[in-house]
Amino acid sequence: SPREELGHALEPSGLGAVTLSPDGSLLIVWGSDRGVRLFDRADMEPVGELPYPTGTSLLGIDFSSDGRRLAVASCPFGPGLECATEVTVWDVSARRRVAGPVPIGPVPSQATGAIAYSDHDRVLVTAGRGVQLLDGESLRLIAEPIQMSDESAVSSERVVVVSAADTDHGSRVVATSDTGQTMVAEWRDSELIPLDVIEAVPSMLLDDGTLITGIANGPFVARDPMTLQPVGPVYRAEAFPNHVALAGPDLLVSSGVLGVELWDRQTGEPASGVIPAGISAAAPDGQTLYLGGRSGEGFIDEVRIVSLDAESLEDAACLQAGRNLTGAEWTAVMGPDRRYERTCPQWPDASIIG
After folding, report:
1. pLDDT at position 6
2. By C-alpha distance, which of 217, 224, 216, 222 is closest to 196?
3. Which helix or strand (DSSP H or E) is residue 351 part of?
4. Are 136 and 117 within 8 A, CB to CB?
5. Is the pTM of this model over 0.90?
6. Are 340 and 332 in contact (CB under 8 A)?
């Protein structure tokens, strides 16, 4: 049962996300206007920044498996469905570019997962007009983009999200188009081979290789990446999730338009209510959840820290509701003899949530 700890105020970073490095030592806050900012997860002190010009939109980032490199897809902010995108690879410890920027052409402006390491870091997969493949070190174009319209009856050249995972059973790549179709592919003899196209959005691969597929940004299900068959319960999300991640061995965390939800991985039951935060990241050990707090304009201006090991009934009830309890909820949980008080002072009132 979770407990919220103190938040850490930030300078507003624009629309963006929070992400953890593979070893969990760094918290990355990235978005438009402020580039990529790095914080020591232990004390939340800033330790560096990967600078980008003001007015730059970041469409996706991904760490190499050893955490030494960070690939970033970026483009100038502006109107339109697509923007001219570049890919840069950074040395994280030295805070310097090691490859790029290399132009990869137009990528959908709404993309937030436009780049992913694959094939044991040898290849970078990017979104755009088809699935694009770059050498993981030099950013040299490896092959012509794979067009999803060649694999399905619905014509779409705009890929908005890519993800990849290397498992004991091989390497998989998943790409989702703006028409709501997902292509599943595998690496075979140094070539990416499309396997199937399914109707699902969002779709992504977890770090352990499990395929997550959604239904119109609502409920989602886990699938075997080899057979595409469901391997678990249906998670009946209410926050219109566009991203799902592992939160330790027993939990999943989904984030979307309305906030963040935690799920029991085995039963599919919610482990929290809808927590009002737009983007989330969980510590690798599943003990701490980092939430990118939003101002009224949607900017990330605070990182809230939630312990996933609560010590009291109040803490558990607070996270289950995703906000402070109403008077009726307080009475139901705490009993009629206990005077009402705000269960989590930094969380929204019930009246704000509606």
Report:
1. 46
2. 224
3. helix 350-353
4. yes
5. no
6. no
